[in-house]
Amino acid sequence: MTKWILTFSYGLFCTAVISYAMAFNMEQFAGTIYINSAFLGLFRMFLNLSLGGLDYFVKGLGRKKLHQFAISYVVTMTAVVLFMKSTSYGNSTLITLATLSAAGFCSQMFVVIGVISSELFPTSIRNIAASFTSTVARFGGIVSPNLFVLEAYWIGLPYLVIVVCMSIYLVLFQLNIPETKSAVQSDAMPEKSEWGRKSKKGDKLLKSKTNGQNV
């Protein structure tokens, strides 16, 4: 469970940095702050409703796949912006759309992490785990206004930092977090004799508890 909480904490920290950094630096994008804010809000609403519906109606589409898609989208769009910022290709409108859409997917990442953590951790520590990860995310919000200060060193450096950090998170999430959709929530902590063992046994136990229904 330690690597679960550390993975979630790292992911929420990075997501908070990206999400709030975009919000605090909205004036640097093409267009007005008001139009960009409206686009971001509408995009987030459409995205959350669409992916929530897919998760509910498509049984084979689990939390893990949705979250991996969101991380991959953020990495891809940020890499596109990095390329356009460091070369003469692209224009300000494309940079704005790519950046804001990546920020919009961050809201989906917040939601999915919350769902997975509530399904993954035993009842006795579920609230503590959620509180810890939320606290780490607040530190990401504190750091986020300084992300675009890195442009003073190189115009593409903030986006390079995002690409590297989120790529690391994608790998950590894939390796450490099991699928939790349709899994029975655990009400008890593992036996003390099982502490410190590799989580493969825990992952197998989680999969064996699936009952074919959404939690």
Automatic annotation (TrEMBL):
Residue ranges, annotated region (Disordered): 186-215
Any GO CC annotation of this UniProt entry: membrane
Segment forming the signal sequence: none
Feature: compositional bias, Basic and acidic residues: 189-206
Membrane topology, from the record: Multi-pass membrane protein
Swiss-Prot/TrEMBL keywords: Membrane, Transmembrane, Transmembrane helix
InterPro entries: MFS_sugar_transport-like, MFS_trans_sf
Compartments where located: Membrane
SUPFAM superfamilies noted in UniProt: MFS general substrate transporter (SSF103473)
One Pfam short name: Sugar_tr
Segments passing through the bilayer: 33-58, 70-88, 94-116, 128-147, 153-172
Domain of life: Eukaryota
Gene Ontology molecular function, alphabetical: transmembrane transporter activity
Protein name per its UniProtKB record: MFS domain-containing protein
